[in-house]
């Protein structure tokens, strides 16, 4: 059967209260997203070390799901009245048809060729090149399927620079794809860290599926050492805050790889990390960039 979806643009002042009110009025589910995601105004709120945080973003998209016979416009009006909002925020109501969501989701993920020898293969696919280094991945809640330019940029860097035996730290590991790739490419040891417990579990599951030994932790679960390679594919705001930590985790002469950076943000990030690293020119793809350098 079809459903109705409601998407409301909401400020931090009332986004959470609106979410709770919509649930109280019969919404089947509600989520909030950063309305400024993938722009220079994106905001990190998930507790990266040293980063000021809040419970919601400054500009939010509140998304709610309702049964098809629901008077969604009336519910939104009631919620706004209860919250004392003088006007109804910008919003849209759409019909969501019933689909085989598993099949549709799987259809979005085909094997991805990273290089001549490295592929990302969803678990329901047969490897295109059985002789290649194939990373089996089950796209789930954690970021890092290989489909995003920032992930591909980091994977290509690892493919070109891992020589064998390196110690690797993947900070903001998401699905664990970078740590797993490093091990498959010959690294001696890989550790992943993420602030999201679901990402840590997804990374462990993916490492097991790939028969790779790599360890994954929440930030409080490990005392970082120094590593030959430190890779952080996150976002510019946390990269700013994490610069001293990531620099201290990179041994002298070691390499750092940074991504999740919009092209227009590259110069600023380079200025910050130039305190510790000799940086190579940025590598760009689809408006995103990857920075790398050697620690002095």
TrEMBL record:
Keywords: Cytoplasm, Methyltransferase, Ribonucleoprotein, Ribosomal protein, S-adenosyl-L-methionine, Transferase
SUPFAM superfamilies: S-adenosyl-L-methionine-dependent methyltransferases (SSF53335)
Protein's cellular compartments: Cytoplasm
Any GO BP annotation: methylation
Catalytic activity: L-lysyl-[protein] + 3 S-adenosyl-L-methionine = N(6),N(6),N(6)-trimethyl-L-lysyl-[protein] + 3 S-adenosyl-L-homocysteine + 3 H(+)
EC class (word): transferase
One Pfam family named in its UniProt record: PrmA
Gene Ontology CC annotations of this record: cytosol; ribosome
GO molecular function, one term: protein-lysine N-methyltransferase activity
The enzyme's E.C. designation: 2.1.1.-
UniProt: S-adenosyl-L-methionine binding residues: 151, 172, 194, 233
Role description: Methylates ribosomal protein L11.
Protein family: Belongs to the methyltransferase superfamily. PrmA family.
Record PANTHER family: ELECTRON TRANSFER FLAVOPROTEIN BETA SUBUNIT LYSINE METHYLTRANSFERASE (PTHR43648:SF1)
Name used for this protein in its record: Ribosomal protein L11 methyltransferase
Record organism: Sideroxyarcus emersonii
Gene that specifies this protein: prmA
